[in-house]
Amino acid sequence: MTQGLFITLEGIEGVGKTTQVDYVAELFRRKNRTVTVTREPGGTSVGEAIREILLQGKDLDICDETELLLIFAARAQHLRRIIEPALARNEVVICDRFTDASLAYQGGGRGIDMARIKQLIDWLDGCIKPELTLLLDAPVETGLARAGSRGELDRFETETIEFFELIRQTYLKLARQEPERLSVIDASLDFDEVQAQIDAVIRSRQY
Prior knowledge:
The protein has 207 residues and is an alpha/beta fold. Helix content is 55%, strand content 13%. The protein has 8 helices and 5 strands; from the N terminus they run βαβααβααβααβα. It has helices spanning 17-29, 45-56, 64-88, 99-109, 114-125, 140-148, 161-177, 191-205; strands spanning 5-10, 35-39, 92-96, 132-137, 182-186. A 5-stranded parallel sheet has the order 2-3-1-4-5, sandwiched between helices. It starts with a strand and ends with a helix. 36% of the residues are buried.
């Protein structure tokens, strides 16, 4: 390959994205590709500071619009300092969450107008869009149970089941709208079975 490749992983809490990000990265390293692994919100020092506010700021009374704009502020820094330069170097960029998360969490979950969010996406992202998004999907109860077993819950993990149901359904709607980009992975299955699904998707794309 002579160009960079951008892959994202999405899903609600507890579906195993962080673990599978590392697995996808290893698949490409075996192909002798240079890989950049990153996450949202975060990826840069500015982004990580914003992430701390968003995830741990339980007592800050963050309004929905502020949450959205903080995420896009972190994304601006992330795109300009990490993602775009890595793609320009012909690397494989694997990111834990990207703009689909904004549509699912702030659009579906918070109820912010999707058209407003898409305006921000169009303005900020330009031509940068994942070639492949792996949507790790599991019932909300399954994901939250797994998240709860990890220790203290963050600001998002303390939200209601109804909030996450809205997010999950928004993710699945996005997958129906863009099946050529979003591949749904059944994350409720055993670890090995989840990775087998990911393997099959990557092989089918012939990356």
